[in-house]
Design brief:
By secondary structure, the protein is mainly alpha-helical. About 80% of the residues lie in helices and about 0% in strands. Helix 3 runs parallel beside helix 7. The mean pLDDT is about 80.
Length: about 525
């Protein structure tokens, strides 16, 4: 294991995850582009996005976050005892999870249908509940996908979990074209129906690889005779509950954000959703990739009591994350207008939509590095079977976010951008909470490199701001003061020229600055060697 779990092996695993995730995120961008072109930011789209977020609460609780982080330490412990026992552990969890999710979905559907039949609610709320009820069955498949993803990551197969959402995005895109001539609500209802099939296909991509693993240790008869709620699973219940509480807090926080945005404006949830997906691109490509690649090595280092390797991996993860995502933060601010306009600025996505989406993107962008650090620090605690600390941090950040949202929207009337800003503030709070409770001091050693990366990023950002303002008349300097009087290029070639020139300038100045400042972490990543 010492030979396997090195910085090089983690980089390789992260690269596989990044490659798969980049492909899936690219199709996701095409999906969002089609949604923006055909449906814009209409209230029906905003209602659909709220329903999608609500129906995905169970996905986050039981499918990806808590389950993945709770499963990996226990699976690795079982595998150290016996590979067959680890396979049996996976089998028992698969069938137990299936029963739990089916029972929860049945109960949720009964409640929703009963409420729709017997309650007198507004048309907008009724539309949201109808679409939520339609999408809920797909959560069974996405929860199973989360479990399969955790198994594949333990097997060091990071490409398939990253690329599997391509199937989901293809179905969604097909539905957009299929229903684009329908009325807005009918179109959103049709897309909601297709989401269930999309979730199934995303899980189906992982099934052959999971089956190949199972067949090594279990016969078909053994697979079909599980121990439902086996005693071994009870050991996982307590930490899993902590994880569920922490993830629940964050997901309730996320759902609350998009609901509050509806009070800020009817189009507010759409602005936030389009901006959030842009912010999630660098976070998924680098933050989530590095965190996912590190959790199994973290766990093995803890099991072997190899504290030096644990510290080395954590330092590497934090440094690599900052070197990739702090420049991304500055790029969000100086390239935000150009990127939003390039991706969405056509069809029914108006200039006003571009402005408000950019403002929301800026609000989310402030929290890019803290959010990535939280993703990285939480597995460090999970590997040590400390599930309480990340849970407490999540609960604290949710409470702060709740209070700030109420203050910003209902008291100060700052609009939907303030909701994104509150999310970033709470990410800072959560990050500081986790850093202060680390058993090993680590940030002080990394500060000199952090400072160099910060200087290089700010230098590149300043150059891009000047070029954009004087050559392209980019509104980033004045967007706060002229929200309704700005006009953006609507021709694709003009949009592309604006984005490519500014992005190339940012990358060039940043790399030159890193070369001058001797930022070896960045230079090694892009394979530039100093003489």
């Amino acid at each position: 294991m010492d030979e396997i779990d090195t910085q090089k092996s983690v980089s390789k695993s992260a690269a596989h995850f990044i490659t798969g995730t980049f492909i899936s995120r690219f199709t996701g961008m095409i999906r969002d582009l089609c949604m923006a072109y055909f449906y814009g930011t209409s209230p029906a789209v905003a209602a659909f996005l709220i329903a999608f977020r609500l129906s995905n609460l169970l996905r986050r609780l039981l499918g990806e976050g808590a389950l993945l982080n709770g499963f990996i330490p226990f699976f690795e412990a079982k595998r150290k005892e016996s590979p067959k026992r680890a396979a049996e552990f996976f089998r028992d969890l698969f069938w137990s999870l299936s029963i739990i999710v089916i029972l929860i979905l049945i109960g949720a559907e009964i409640l929703l249908v009963t409420f729709l039949i017997f309650s007198d609610i507004s048309p907008g709320a009724r539309e949201i509940m109808q679409m939520t009820a339609v999408m809920l069955p797909g959560i069974f498949f996405i929860c199973q996908f989360g479990l399969s993803m955790a198994l594949l990551e333990c097997e060091r197969n990071f490409f398939i979990p990253g690329v599997a959402p391509v199937a989901f995005n293809i179905v969604w895109i097909a539905a957009i074209f299929l229903f684009h001539n329908f009325s807005p609500f009918s179109a959103m209802l049709g897309i909601s129906t297709s989401i269930v099939m999309a979730f199934f296909l995303q899980w189906w991509v992982t099934i052959p690889h999971v089956r190949n693993y199972i067949q090594q240790f279990l016969s078909w008869r053994e697979w079909m005779t599980p121990h439902i709620f086996a005693p071994e699973l009870k050991n996982m219940v307590s930490p899993l509950l902590f994880g569920v509480v922490g993830v629940a807090a964050m997901q309730i926080n996320s759902a609350f954000d998009i609901i509050i945005a509806r009070f800020a404006s009817l189009e507010g949830p759409a602005y936030l959703s389009y901006a959030h997906r842009l912010q999630q691109l660098p976070l998924a490509l680098f933050g989530i990739a590095i965190a996912s690649a590190l959790l199994p090595p973290f766990t093995r280092a803890v099991k072997e009591e190899n504290h030096e390797r644990f510290k080395s991996l954590l330092s590497f993860g934090l440094l690599r994350t900052y070197s990739l995502l702090f420049p991304g933060t500055i790029a969000i601010f100086v390239l935000g207008c150009a990127s939003v306009n390039l991706l969405y600025g056509r069809g029914l996505f108006t200039n006003v939509s571009t402005i408000h989406t950019t403002l929301c993107l800026w609000g989310y962008g402030i929290g890019l590095v803290p959010a990535a650090f939280v993703l990285l620090l939480a597995p460090a605690y999970y590997a040590r079977r400390d599930f309480w600390t990340p849970t407490l941090g999540s609960i604290l950040s949710v409470l702060v976010n709740f209070v700030l949202n109420l203050l910003m929207v209902f008291v100060l009337h700052f609009g939907e951008m303030s909701i994104a800003l509150c999310t970033s503030i709470t990410a800072f709070i959560n990050m500081q909470f986790l850093l202060k409770r680390l058993p090993i001091p680590i940030i002080q050693e990394l500060l000199p490199t952090f400072k160099k990366i910060t200087i290089a990023s700010l230098t590149a950002g300043l150059c891009v701001l000047c070029m954009g303002y004087f050559y392209f008349h980019d509104p980033s300097f004045v967007i706060f003061f002229q929200k309704t009087e700005m006009h953006f290029p609507r021709l694709f070639l003009e949009q592309m020229q604006h984005f490519v020139v500014l992005t190339s300038l940012f990358a060039l100045v940043f790399l030159i600055s890193c070369y001058i400042l001797k930022v070896e972490e960045v230079l090694q990543f892009v394979r530039i060697k100093r003489k």
